[in-house]
């Protein structure tokens, strides 16, 4: 995967995860751990953290800000979409980082990246035993 090099995109991701107004970060049911698999999502993966789901979301966002600030490797994945299936082209960003000593793979998408109020959607959070915070 190529590394995201665009400083505007990295800045927009950072602003959103830092809870800067008027940015929005939302989590899908799968990212929260309420999807089909019981071994994915922040609720089951960060179960050792004695805080409610909102606290785990805050810990993940804080770790993502630190990861970006430290120059961590944010992958950019461009998908062409599928006309037959009705899927539009999309850009995803992938993070491999540690949160509360748990190695995670986090997949996000962003809307309105060029504006002052990007919307970031955390699509999935999975355990990543191969995770290495790349630089």
Notable traits:
135 residues, YaeB-like fold, 4 helices, globular
Brief overview:
It is built from four helices and five strands; from the N terminus they run αβαααββββ. With 135 residues, it is of the alpha+beta class.
Describe this structure in words.
The protein is α+β, with helices and mostly antiparallel strands and 135 residues long. Strands 1-5-4-3-2 form a 5-stranded mixed sheet. The protein has 4 helices and 5 strands, in the order H-E-H-H-H-E-E-E-E. The model has no long low-confidence stretch (mean pLDDT 88). It is globular and about 40 Å long. Helix 1 packs antiparallel against helix 4 (53-69). It has a single domain (7-127), classed as YaeB-like fold (2-Layer Sandwich). Helices cover 27% and strands 28% of the residues.
Q: What CATH architecture do you see?
A: 2-Layer Sandwich
Low-pLDDT stretches: none
- Give a quick account of the main beta sheet: strands, pairing sense, barrel closure: 5 strands, mixed
Radius of gyration: 14 Å
**For the largest beta sheet, what order do the strands appear in spatially?**
1-5-4-3-2
Tell how many strands the DSSP assignment holds. 5
**CATH topology descriptor:** YaeB-like fold
The amount of helix comes to 25-40%
Helix segment tally: 4
* Total of domains: 1
Range of strand content: 25-35%
- Which class in CATH terms? Alpha Beta
- What order do the SSEs take from the amino end to the carboxyl end, as H and E? HEHHHEEEE
| Gap from first CA to last CA | 13 Å
Overall pLDDT score:
88
Shape: globular
Judged by helices, strands and strand pairing, the structural class is alpha+beta
């Amino acid at each position: 995967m190529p590394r995201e090099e665009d400083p505007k995109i990295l800045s927009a991701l950072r602003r959103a995860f830092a809870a800067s107004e008027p940015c929005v970060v939302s989590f899908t049911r799968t990212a929260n751990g309420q999807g089909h698999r019981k071994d994915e999502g922040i609720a089951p993966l960060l179960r050792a953290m004695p805080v409610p789901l909102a606290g785990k979301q805050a810990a993940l966002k804080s770790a993502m800000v630190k990861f970006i600030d430290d120059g961590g490797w944010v992958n950019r994945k461009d998908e062409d979409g599928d006309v037959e299936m009705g899927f539009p082209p999309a850009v995803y960003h992938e993070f491999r980082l540690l949160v509360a000593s748990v190695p995670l793979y986090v997949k996000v998408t962003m809307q309105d990246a060029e504006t002052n109020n990007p919307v970031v959607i955390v699509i999935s959070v999975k355990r990543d035993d191969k995770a290495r915070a790349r630089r």
